[in-house]
Design goal:
homodimer; L-amino peptidase D-ALA esterase/amidase; six-stranded mixed sheet
Chain lengths: 392, 392
Amino acid sequence: MIKVPGFAGSGISCGIKKRGKKDLALIFSEYPAKAAGMFTENIVKAPPVLLGMERIKNGLCQAVLVNSGVANAFTGKPGMKAALLTTGCAARELGIDESLVIPSSTGVIGGPLPVEKINKAMPVLVSELREEGLLDAAEAIMTTDAFPKYATTKVGIGGRTGTVCVIGKGAGMIMPNMATMLAYILTDISVPRRTLTKALRNAVNNSFNKIIVDGDTSTNDTVLMLANGKLGNTAIGLTGTNYRKLEQAVTETAAVVAEMIVKDGEGATKTVRIIVKGARSESDAENVARTIGNSLLVKSALYGEDPNWGRIVAAAGRAGVDFNPDRLDLYFGDHKILSNSRQVMDEASALEVMKTPKFSITLDLKTGKKASFVITSDITYDYLKINAHYRT
Amino acid sequence: MIKVPGFAGSGISCGIKKRGKKDLALIFSEYPAKAAGMFTENIVKAPPVLLGMERIKNGLCQAVLVNSGVANAFTGKPGMKAALLTTGCAARELGIDESLVIPSSTGVIGGPLPVEKINKAMPVLVSELREEGLLDAAEAIMTTDAFPKYATTKVGIGGRTGTVCVIGKGAGMIMPNMATMLAYILTDISVPRRTLTKALRNAVNNSFNKIIVDGDTSTNDTVLMLANGKLGNTAIGLTGTNYRKLEQAVTETAAVVAEMIVKDGEGATKTVRIIVKGARSESDAENVARTIGNSLLVKSALYGEDPNWGRIVAAAGRAGVDFNPDRLDLYFGDHKILSNSRQVMDEASALEVMKTPKFSITLDLKTGKKASFVITSDITYDYLKINAHYRT
């Protein structure tokens, strides 16, 4: 169960998805919460994203209305109108200003948002709001996800115990910089806007922005953080112990959900952390890690449990980062596979590592002292099964 | 059959591959030919690539020795020594200077090149050289290729008829900038070095550099062009009618082989030309086309014959190119699917197009007058079957 003081949730079926599956979610804070958001970098931004970017500017949010099944993306002015109509309906039903409602949509790109179905279901959606209802909300935002995704952390702030909860979804179209991924970070800790923005950015960069499923970036990605202040703590500044505790709690909780997203990567059977160290800069390290984590040949080899390190170093070589190809060290888990680019592996040990569902691959470039990582998954028959016929 | 005046070829099994499959090829010119080459941009370059880059500097080549099965990549100094030993053996057997022999290797990265097997087979390889043997060479350079790849064009130059022949291989690890792909362009036309270099670069940029199978770039890519001058024509300059005819012939012949490579893309069932027009620059157009052609979600939809245009525009949106997402036109074959980003499609027609094995998708950005394209394939269960267990 997920509970965050001062927040309520609900999730119901309004008829967008087939077979009565939940497809409409509401997250509500009893007070207007301090709010910050991060949104897709795709230049094709869905109307709900554009509306959310506009509304978040005032720094407050009290309700998040999410539908799954249809992304309301690439729908132009009618799509914006639909986002305005549905959030307007939610605001009236909740008795709050419509500027305090932020929408998200996820699902097929291109179809119109069924405004009538959503608004007709609004009274029920609002009446079902309850503290224990966040799990229903987590279920209602799922698309190809196999399970709902959430995590909660308790954190001591000035003698009181605050809660940080992350609810997320997303299984395909994931890659660094938040592909079709929605995440809502809820906390009762009192956090001023500037602090919230900083903590959110740092947490997202070290969690959701490190995951890769298929290299695509969606039109709808959104991470919102809402802090309703119900805990009554002294407001947290931009630095200091309390700030560090907050950022750590948000990062760790987000990282748990991010890893769930990879684990649930469409059809995935492996969760693999690609660590690149010994780089001249963190961005060099990240570029190499990302190129490896995105390589279809590497992801196929992970699926086949083939310790084909040649594909890993070949991917590293096309990342646009300079290193000496004769000096690489490579590890599968703790097993050293390459030392100064010479194979020193006991292939059986490497194979043992690859047979586990979760492991790390570490590449040491030996050109500097910086490191970074990404979390990737394998690509499987089931990925294709899901994505070849997604709409049928 | 493939025949180019003054060239001979042979292809035999020397025991690198299992079951007596051909794995060693020789292409020989009766005169030292003017030569130019283009090589992988991966910073991890295999020893045969490094040796080829060195030897091509003198502008002449008389023999190309190619093995399949093992890439001799990431093998360090022993790998370079192996390339020197095998090309040295070929040179002695052919009675030519070893600087005139360029090696290529393709196959698994990381294993040592079996020098003894190759050199032991060299007398037979050389004795089998014959004008009709280029097809054997084309077969011996195959790895996961389902069929040998070659094309020939005749071109009139100053009253004589010259031949341009392209022999290629490559089915996985293909993406713009020549992934694990080998191609040898042979002509009897007399072409000075500078002209050869220009024609090769332009032809490759409009053929092999436009194809995508899986977005990976190999350590071994090589395109060599050899012009032995047997036709006896007046040498061709850097401009003028004869130059244009030469460049066109080389480009068209290379494009035929490039398209064969996509068609044979591991497990592929579709060959799709992604055309982007109305761009501000050719590189903008190419970036958008390449991002679409590389999208795993687009490639999955091609496989599933799902006219999911949302994935196409979403991919376009993350290419880093500015355009107005509300003004796009999109076509499947000749059918207009989107007009000013509004769906105007008869989905049944779109589906008809997608059911064919070869078609085009055209995106008009309406921001300028430049265009470019890539050729991509779908990604299928068979791709994974081939790549998950490549080494087993």
